[in-house]
Fold:
Amino acid sequence: MSQRMSNKHETPTIEEFISHIGKAAELFLTVDNHLKENFPSEFKMYFDGHDKGWAISYHSKYLSKKTYLCNIVAEKDSFLFVTNIKLENLNKLYETVTNHAKECIDKSPYRDRGWIEYRVYNIENLEEAITKILQFKIDGIPARFITK
Structure:
């Protein structure tokens, strides 16, 4: 497990969050911008109840309904992209991803419920998170919750 922001008594600023991500900060900013630009998103920083540390949660908002998209957990020089996918879609996704993604999926503690914890270290990981994992997530959400 990578070093996470684990002091739950001090809420970090967004600058501290990004600073902790370190070498993967540009990757985080890319996915953050992608989510904000492509979805009517709401986001908030929170301390993950499963002791993952400080994270940002993203929800797509349509009228009065919010639909969960993903969480991003700050780690030293990386970040954890966390989302859930319907099990039938997760099995289809598994057949199309890299060995890194398969390893992350296999190690995800709640995989049997469709949860994925995908660690992003580099641009290839980021591209896979956005173009594969997030796309499978979106395919399972009614279109009215994800369009601008």
The chain has one domain: 14-145. The CA atoms of residues 67 and 142 lie 10 Å apart. Residues 123-139 form the longest helix (17 residues).
